[in-house]
User: Fold this.
Amino acid sequence: MILELAFAIACGEKILCHMEPGGRDWHYRTKVDGFEMKCWYDGPRMKPRNELYWAESPSSPPPMDIKEPMRPPWEHDDRFKGDTQ
Assistant:
């Protein structure tokens, strides 16, 4: 494993980006493939951005489709209405 990593570093092999670090000695770069999010990778610090890549274009989750606005619990739950006696 160590020899493979050393070979990949020496040859400038591309390393896959991850959304979160996978270990203690991982590093990150921003602006990989034009994205502002952190590209976490297992490799040397300050690896050139052109040697990092995303497997897919990261994207934000789609917006939630909310049919009716949320109401505070006291508007629809009798427990919060207080004693009326």
